[in-house]
Write a structure and sequence with these properties.
Number of helices of chain B: 15
Strand order of the largest sheet of chain B: 6-7-5-8-9-10
Number of domains of chain A: 1
Distance between the termini of chain A: 41 Å
CATH topology of the largest domain in chain B: Rossmann fold
Shape of chain A: globular
Largest sheet of chain A: 6 strands, mixed
CATH superfamily of chain A: Ribonuclease H-like superfamily/Ribonuclease H
Largest sheet of chain B: 6 strands, mixed
CATH class of the largest domain in chain B: Alpha Beta
CATH topology of chain A: Nucleotidyltransferase, domain 5
Structural class of chain A: alpha/beta
Number of helices of chain A: 3
Oligomer: heterodimer
Distance between the termini of chain B: 57 Å
Number of strands of chain B: 14
Number of strands of chain A: 6
């Protein structure tokens, strides 16, 4: 069993006057192929007037993950960090991170994606934007 | 045996170990295609538009071909039609690339109708973008058609496209029949176990050892092209074990598509045995496991994976422990074995049994009649009869699939089923 924190960001496209993004971080215990348990989730909204660059994405992820109490590496989709090589991305974070590899890590990212996407939909409905 | 020279162009600044690995794989592929490698040429540079490697290197290659008497030159990169033409003009011998070589291997090993169609489809897909320029180069001195505008080019391309459509239809219909066969096997109480993994990981040796039956096993890539399926009994459960074509690095997408029905054997199984060669360096093992997970992702729908860590007898115990620790996050249900010596087979069989689809257990009582006796016979076929007692009634303790137990539920003498 391994502790990981899966992260996903939804809303990286322009709506009206800015980029309405929601980042979801999920702390999980996983085996190599299955999610065994989920201990905590954190959701944080972000608004940016311009398109987020890599450093902005790193800040968004770090800010969301700071609300998670459990330890473990941050698992991020390679595309979220503009397909930067892993060794470059690792240096940008203050804690351990890696790209998704195993089936369980992919499942965890998918899980985080569902949370961020549905949270963003609720947010946009509440703000009466979309 | 034909003599060949291998050529590899390395990207400037690329990792030496990775380059050596690629070259080693090309050597294995050439060996699998029954070629004798008489020489290897490498060059570190950016690709040349006309020759892939530098002009000087091609001249060097031409001398090498003449001296060694090589029949073929194999490049470890995809070559454009112009590059093949230019290099073969200089070297005066046949020039092929890595993908031609893989297609040659598949073609030589294809035995069934479906496998032959798959190879043909892959070859046509490879040829399609080049069809126009191949004809253009071949017919450059005799342009046909009005004002020599080249009437052949279009017709050949159209011909290739038509053949692709026809073969796709044929493969599609043969895939359907294999899927219905699979559901029939499930209905007959068989659980499906598939061997997956990279080429040369030891799948065929493991398959042979598990089934104790002679299939063609050689220390070569792609020993098994057509899916080979045999039945075996694992703790009284009937299992169909399927040996499949191995994964290969950098397999282009059009080749993966063409061999999809072969991979289906893996995706539709109940348990997948992912065979890993532990004698590889740990970084190579990790990379291969990541690619395997990538192939399985979204396709296996919760099927259990047992990671068979093979060739443990070729690794030092301390080194083995370190490797197992490092890849543990990518290895579901790991089992250490040696397919050649048979070490660890009991643990593997137990692990397969643990991960087979769950069967329930039930006690039933049948009246003594001819009909009941035929039902007993049917139950022996469909499940495991743990005990049978012929008294005034026939009392059976059986373990079977949910559907079977439902059919005999009216004869149940337990209040509730005991989960096996």
């Amino acid at each position: 069993m391994f502790s990981i924190i899966a992260v996903d960001i939804s809303g990286r496209h322009k709506i009206k006057d800015g980029y309405y993004m929601v980042c979801a971080a999920v702390a999980l215990e996983v085996s190599a192929s299955h999610i065994e348990s989920i201990s905590q989730t954190a959701i944080k909204p972000f608004l940016s007037p311009g398109p987020p660059d890599v450093l902005a994405i790193v800040n968004i992820i770090e800010a969301t993950v700071s609300e998670i109490e459990s330890s473990g590496p941050i698992i991020v989709e390679k595309g979220d960090l503009y397909n930067r090589p892993e060794w470059i991305s690792k240096k940008m974070f203050s804690r351990d991170m890696k790209y998704q590899e195993s089936l369980s890590e992919r499942l965890a990212i998918e899980f985080a994606h569902h949370i961020s996407l549905s949270s963003r939909k609720l947010l946009m409905k509440e703000l009466d934007i979309e | 045996m034909k003599k060949v020279i291998l050529v590899q162009r390395n990207e400037p600044g690329s990792d030496n170990g990775v380059n050596e690995g690629k070259l080693a794989e090309l050597k294995e592929l050439a060996r699998a295609a029954h070629y004798q490698v008489v020489g290897v040429l490498t060059q570190t540079r950016y690709p040349d538009r006309k020759y892939q490697v530098g002009r000087g290197k091609v001249d060097e290659l031409a001398v090498f071909v003449e001296v060694s008497g090589a029949d073929k030159v194999i490049f470890n990169h995809q070559l454009s039609t112009t590059q093949i033409y230019n290099i073969s003009e200089t070297c005066k011998c046949e020039v092929i690339d890595r993908f031609n070589l893989i297609l040659e291997i598949f073609a030589s090993r294809a035995t069934t109708r479906r496998a032959k169609l798959q190879v043909e489809l892959a070859r046509l897909q490879y040829e399609l973008p080049k069809a126009r320029s191949i004809v253009s180069l071949l017919k450059k001195d005799e342009r046909p058609g009005f004002m020599g505008l080249g009437g052949y080019e279009d017709s050949y391309e159209q011909d290739v496209k038509k053949r692709i459509v026809r073969i796709r239809n044929e493969i599609h219909s043969s895939c359907k029949s294999s899927e219905s066969l699979r559901s029939f096997r499930h209905e007959r109480g068989f659980s499906l176990v598939a061997l997956a993994g990279y080429t040369n990981a030891g799948k065929s040796t493991l398959f042979q050892s598990l089934v104790k039956e002679g299939t063609e096993v050689e220390d070569m890539l792609f020993t098994t092209l057509s899916p080979t399926t045999r039945s075996l009994s694992i703790n009284q459960r009937r299992v169909l074990l399927t040996d499949t074509v191995g994964f290969i690095e950098d397999l282009p997408h059009w080749m993966v598509d063409a061999f999809r029905s072969t991979l289906d054997e893996i995706f539709l199984a109940d348990v997948i045995l992912l065979v890993v060669d532990m004698s590889d360096p740990v970084e190579v093992i990790r990379q291969k496991l990541v690619v395997s997970h990538d192939i399985f992702w979204k396709r296996i729908e919760g099927v259990e994976i047992v990671t068979v860590l093979n060739k443990v007898d070729m690794v030092e115990p301390d080194d083995l422990k370190r490797k197992v620790d490092e890849i543990s996050y990518l290895a579901p249900h790991p089992v250490l074995i040696s397919a050649s010596s048979g070490d660890g087979f009991e643990a593997l069989v137990d692990k397969i049994y643990e991960n087979l689809p769950q069967w329930d257990r039930s006690r039933i009582a049948l009246d003594m009649s001819e009909e009941s006796l035929s039902m007993v016979s049917w139950l022996y076929d469909e499940g495991i009869v743990h005990s049978i007692d012929y008294g005034e009634q026939i009392v059976l303790d059986i373990e079977a699939r949910e559907e079977i137990l439902q059919k005999v539920s009216k004869f149940n003498i337990d209040d509730h089923r005991v989960l096996s």
